[in-house]
Structure formats: structure tokens, C-alpha cells
Amino acid sequence: MPAYVALLRGINVGGRNLIGMPALAECFRDAGYRGVRTYIQSGNVLFTADAGAADAVRGAGLEDAVERMLTERFEIPILVIIRSRDEFAAIIAAAPANHGSAELRSDAYFLKAPLDADATFADLPELREGVDSVALGPGVIYFSRVAALAGKTRITRLMRMPMFTQMTVRNWRTTTKLLALLDENEPAHP
């Protein structure tokens, strides 16, 4: 059974949309997903699903089903972005060489289809030269800022744009840890 990660947007942030991780995992288990586990409070759910789920992910059917499930259970709308283990590995492999280095604060901005990296990049606000750097990946934008100058970043302008509501952000340490956890759920990889 393929392994997936569901990235939930906007839960347990600033005292809003509070959902306990045990309740979140139980919701997934009750819906028939297996190997369910959560990672930190920001809404990362790892699970396995039958092979038909792979087709559903490509058609966004699995994301829609999980969003409906969460809305029914928790009575709040939650944006969900789902990536398979292989998609997640490709995202990490495509990152710039220095992404996640000690000199940078690095994040991955996961995009919900139909939002894509090229269109999003074209609409990004002007970033600060010498502080901010952006690169495109498969369904993701890699964003870094120089750690010593992080207070001068302009990425906060993106967070005020309407397209930001179709993204969820994970820091690079969390992103790479999620792949390691996905690998635990799916033992053999080419």
C-alpha cells in the first residue's frame, strides 16, 4: 500500500482551528486509512491507502475526500495537500543545493492544484536582494532567507496575497523528516 502525507493548512496556529493530534489520527483511522501517524502539531498526517488512492491523488479526489472528512469531523474547513512518498522524495531531490543549510532559514511552500509553481512564481512580490531566494520545484516553491538577515525578508508580502490561501508551508527540517517517516511506512523503494 502506498504511503502518503497529508499537509493540513492552518490548524493549531495562533490559537485557532485547534485539533489534537490523537483526534486527527483517529479521524483518518475511522475513515479506513492505515499506518496513520501524525508528526508535530502543525497538521502532518502520514498514512497508507490502497492503490486506487494513487489515481485519486492525481485527480485530487483523495484531497477532496480528506477535506470533506475533516470538515465533517471537526466542523471547520481545512485545506489539505497530499503527496505520495515518491512525490515527496522528488520534491526534496529537486531542492537547490544549499536549501536547508545552516546559513539559511529554508521552507517549502506546498501548492494546491490547480496552483502551480510557474504561475505562482510569476505573481510573487518583489523579494529582497541578498536576503531572499526562491526556486521552483514540482508542486512546491523553495524559499530561503539568509538567517542573519531574516528580519529583512519580504516573503511576508506573499502571505497577504489571495494565492497564499492555496498553500501550506513547512520548514525544511520538517519536510525532510516527513520523508524519513514516509520511508518507515513504505519499506521498499526503487
From TrEMBL:
**Could you tell me which InterPro entries the record lists for this protein?**
DUF1697
Q: Which Pfam families does the protein's record reference? A: DUF1697
- Put simply, this protein is called DUF1697 domain-containing protein
